[in-house]
Amino acid sequence: MRNFKITVEYNGANFYGWQKQNGKRTVQDELEKTITEVTGETVTVEGSGRTDRGVHALGQVVSFTLESKIPCVGLKKALNNLLPNDIFVKKVEVVDANFHARFSAKKKTYQYIVQVGGDRNAVKNATLAYYPFSVNFEKMEEVSKLMIGKHNFKGFCSSGTNVKDFEREIYDLKIKKKGRIFTFEITGNGFLYNMVRIIVGTLLDVGRDKLTQENVEQALASGKREYAGQTMPACGLYLKRVEYPQNA
Amino acid sequence: MRNFKITVEYNGANFYGWQKQNGKRTVQDELEKTITEVTGETVTVEGSGRTDRGVHALGQVVSFTLESKIPCVGLKKALNNLLPNDIFVKKVEVVDANFHARFSAKKKTYQYIVQVGGDRNAVKNATLAYYPFSVNFEKMEEVSKLMIGKHNFKGFCSSGTNVKDFEREIYDLKIKKKGRIFTFEITGNGFLYNMVRIIVGTLLDVGRDKLTQENVEQALASGKREYAGQTMPACGLYLKRVEYPQNA
User: Fold this and answer.
1) Global pTM?
2) Pairing with A126, which of A1, A2, B178, B224 sits 20 to 30 Å away (CA)?
């Protein structure tokens, strides 16, 4: 029995998210089905976390075990030949038996890509969010620093979650601008439901003076959702990277 | 009664092409439905040509007439507010009563975007084609010149068309390369069924030495489809621009 770690890219537009759901097309289902096609074994794969409907991944990490003796290179090739065009396995590794894509994860990095102002882009509608206002980049950058560190992020979390502990640590938050395209890159030890989408919406709302730095401070201090900004749509969100301890 | 010319961008991934078809989602249907929502008038819109399922447009031109006195700016805004995210109206103009998006068209420019070699891109699977081989760019460029001018393009046309006259004139064909991303831009007076997709497939097949310059010359001289290369998938094809006489 070998324990596998695979790194997966997907376009979330035509999936009902990561997690298996009866009768709906999900990434987990497609992966499990394809692994069974290749190896004949029934598997349950574990993702580093769920991604919601419409959310993409550049580096989702997935673990599962197999009896099969298929080499990593052969497994990668066979999976990619059978997987649909919107999923691609970038890397296949055999790892320690204790490795678990979710429980072993130490850091996650999300990317959020949004076009600010201008005409909306119909061709890229499923892979690029759109914010139809102009914003002050420097102001956004400055307020974004408030997010760094350990905070109670309850104010940056959508309801409908069973989580009890809202403390998370953000290690890094960078915003890059290339013309109208803004890319947010956020690294943390974990993220609450819709947290990245709300952080980005809040910073954009600050950028167009709909919210102030004080509102953001209040959202962080009080844990109240109403002080934070809008939840940006799923289409701009990418799970970019999941990091594990050196020995995992 | 005013005659309108609108320029439309769309992502073809979730459409069964341009043309109305009972019960299927098409671009023509979405536009007609939305124009009716805005003006209360029942319209039939004419496109410069059909685009197939999965084919995109950066500048599809569409004409129709309206009794409504709505200004162009207001019509553009109202349409874009109601249209789905995968269609955007870039321009609205009132034109001469004789203008017809299809019959008045003089030149069309298509763009074909393909990634050559490397890992396939799952995130861009619906907007970027993939050719999994490496190619000789200079050879492709050289052979591409054979396409310029008036030719019988029967060898570069899929069956299933009622066309009798296979002569078309290609005014320009350029290939640009940026890393692994190749962009073909082809301008002509008109295109046969799948003609751009077959020209691009043929040039790529020449680039990887699957076809020779002689094969291409034979395809042009004989009108036989078997001498030309593969039909590339719809996802890489964009109707970029339609040109009309100055006074249209």
Assistant:
1) 0.94
2) B178
- Residue A125 has its nearest CB partner, among B80, B85, B119, at B85
For residue B125, CA distances in Å to A10, B139, B222 come to 9, 27, 35
Q: pLDDT per residue over B38-67, tens digit each?
A: 999 999 999 999 999 999 999 999 999 999
Helices marked H in chain B — which ranges?
27-39, 72-82, 137-144, 195-207, 213-222
- Provide the token pair at B122: 């799952």
CATH 3.30.70.580 at A2-95, yes or no:
yes
CATH of A107-243, one of 2.60.120.620, 3.30.70.660, 1.20.120.1760, 3.40.50.450: 3.30.70.660
Question: What are the residue ranges of CATH 3.30.70.580 in chain A?
Answer: 2-95
Q: What is the ipTM of this complex?
A: 0.93
Q: List Cα–Cα distances, A139 to A66, A225, B226, in angstroms.
A: 51, 21, 61
The two tokens of residue A181 are 């395209």
CB contact under 8 A, A120 and B10: no
Q: Do the beta carbons of residue B111 and residue B238 sit within 8 Å?
A: yes
**Span B115-145, pLDDT tens digits:** 999 999 999 999 999 999 999 999 999 999 9
What does residue A171 show for φ and ψ, rounded to 5 degrees?
Answer: -85, -35
Q: Token pair for residue B79?
A: 């349409």
Three-state DSSP class for residue A23: coil
Query: Is A119 part of the annotated catalytic residue set?
Result: no
Which residues of chain A make contact with B124, given a CB cutoff of 8 A? 11, 127
DSSP H stretches of helix in chain A: 27-39, 72-82, 137-144, 195-207, 213-222
Range(s) of chain B covered by CATH 3.30.70.660: 107-243
Residues of A in contact with B86 (CB under 8 A): 122, 125-126
